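Q: My labmate handed me this sequence with no annotations at all. I'd like to see what the chain might look like in three dimensions before we decide whether it's worth expressing. Could you predict it?
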Amino acid sequence: DQVSSKVTNPVKRERCPYGKFCYRKNPTHLQENIHPGDPDWNNKENDSSDKKPECPYGTDCYRKNPDHLKEYSHTQKRSTITTAKPRTSKR
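A: Here is what I predict for the chain of 91 residues:
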């Protein structure tokens, strides 16, 4: 009964900020958030990444902070602007 009511009356859910890195198994969390593999994961209504600027580290970013993930998208390779300074050798 509950499964059929979910299909007929879809509730707009937000994407989990951790995405594929989410380890939470709480049923409430799984109901409130969309995860990769859910049927509505690729729904454009739930995707807010179009409005976010690209993270300077792109797909190489290791940060998992939900605030960072909400603020930046991580779809492109690392920007060439953020290259490190060359090392100076000791004399």
